[in-house]
């Protein structure tokens, strides 16, 4: 019995490590203040390292409060050929980016600026839930 339990624990750990290692890919845009009210928290201020989720991750409000590590991986247009900064940012989902949203995640301007040149407007990203 102990051997079976150990095997299950090891399998679960391997699955967790694989899922963490596989970041999702998408695009990011940004929006500007005011950041309240928001779909998730109404008039509660959640700071500036925040984001709005598109339908790809919204999940009928399930994304509210989730934290994502977002890293710029490249340009999506010819305007700024190398927009990325060599850092990532952790953001909290506080809002919904409605249909027609031009990115997977719509970052606050401050969060976008931390990982890329805002003149790019839209970037390619990798993101993982933390």
From TrEMBL:
SUPFAM superfamilies per UniProt: Barwin-like endoglucanases
SMART domains reported for this sequence: DPBB_1
Primary localisation category: secreted
Pfam families assigned to the protein according to its UniProt record, in alphabetical order: DPBB_1
InterPro entries reported for this sequence: EGC1/2, Expansin/allergen_DPBB_dom, RlpA-like_DPBB, RlpA-like_sf
A GO biological-process term: systemic acquired resistance
Keyword flag Secreted: yes
Residue ranges annotated for the Expansin-like EG45 domain, each copy included: 26-130
Localization (cell): Secreted
Cellular component terms (Gene Ontology): apoplast
PROSITE patterns: EXPANSIN_EG45 (PS50842)
Keywords: Secreted, Signal
Signal peptide: 1-23
PANTHER family registered for this protein in UniProt: EG45-LIKE DOMAIN CONTAINING PROTEIN, EG45-LIKE DOMAIN CONTAINING PROTEIN 1-RELATED
Protein name per its UniProtKB record: Expansin-like EG45 domain-containing protein
């Amino acid at each position: 019995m102990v051997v079976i339990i150990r095997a299950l624990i090891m399998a679960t750990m391997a699955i967790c490590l694989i899922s963490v290692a596989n970041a999702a890919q998408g695009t990011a845009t940004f929006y500007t203040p005011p950041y309240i009210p928001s779909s998730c928290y109404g008039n509660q201020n959640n700071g500036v390292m925040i984001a709005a989720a598109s339908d790809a991750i919204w999940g009928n409000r399930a994304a509210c409060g989730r934290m994502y590590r977002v890293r710029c991986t490249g340009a999506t247009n010819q305007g700024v050929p190398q927009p990325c900064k060599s850092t990532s940012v952790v953001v909290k989902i506080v809002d919904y980016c409605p249909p027609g949203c031009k990115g997977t995640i719509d970052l606050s301007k401050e969060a976008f600026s931390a990982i890329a040149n805002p003149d790019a407007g839209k970037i390619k990203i990798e993101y993982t839930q933390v």
